[in-house]
Amino acid sequence: MRTHRENRSPRRSTTWWTVGVIALSLVFLAPLVVMVLGSLQRPLQPPPDGLDLWPDPAEWSNYLAVPRFMPLAWLLLNSLLLVVVAVPVTVVVTSMAGLAIVTARGRLRRGLIGVSVFMLLVPAAALWVPRVVLLRGVGLADTPLTVALLALAGTTPFYVLLFALAYSRIPVSLLEAATLEGLSPYAVWRRVALPLGRPAAVAVAALSTLYYWSTFMDPLTLVSSPGNWPVALGLRRLSEMEAALYPIYLAGAVIVTAPALLAFAIGQRSFFASVERS
Q1: CA gap 119, 190 in Å, rounded
Q2: What is the C-alpha to C-alpha distance for residues 142 and 162, in angstroms, rounded to an integer?
Q3: Residue closest to 91 by CA, chosen among 214, 211, 206, 217
Q4: How many helical (H) and strand (E) elements, i.e. helices and strands, does the chain have?
Q5: Whole-model pTM?
Q6: Which contiguous run of DSSP H or E holds residue 274?
Q7: For 53-62, 99-108, 164-173, 202-211, which range has the lowest pLDDT when averaged over its residues?
């Protein structure tokens, strides 16, 4: 009897855990569902009473109308270029910084961790003006790749700490043996640390992809020419249309959100695959 109860207890906890995950997923999916349903409403019509489960008829032509209100293809290209440049740089910079923290000793290691945590606590708004002044001073402001320059600083200290946590699981003897074999710090990073820290690299790549694809405030403060805007900032101008045209704005939001969701799904699958290999 005791064994039977012990077997039922894990099953109940697993069931409640599954129910909780499903409920939490529905909470996060609800805005996406409302956005898709709203994008299929007929423009220049009064909003429906309550939640329209499925518009009748569904106005798929709203998606074709989006390029008439914003240069969608050009803005998507700007965002794609931003992601292609910024994400690899972010992974390289933060992975090297994480390895530097792990291989440091004593006070230096604690100091590097403390600086990273301190920079993580600095509000992003406090950096907007210094970034603008610095980039304008060196003549690098207002280009399609201006926001990508943030990747040279690692984008966020959180990624550095994530790599440091992943590299801390590597036996110190393995890193020391690689150094004794005559490998340079760069070779130790490329041949030993980075392959063993593949899950962290995939996670940082996925998170930074979502960040640079959806970033809004950084290009708003750093990029003034509409031709250099990423698609998230271009979508802001579409939101300024009159309320009767909001289905077209929501259609644009669906188009912009779809690549981010696809990247997240691919990154999640790659992350679990890399965890299983390690």
Answers
A1: 26
A2: 31
A3: 206
A4: 13, 0
A5: 0.83
A6: helix 246-277
A7: 53-62
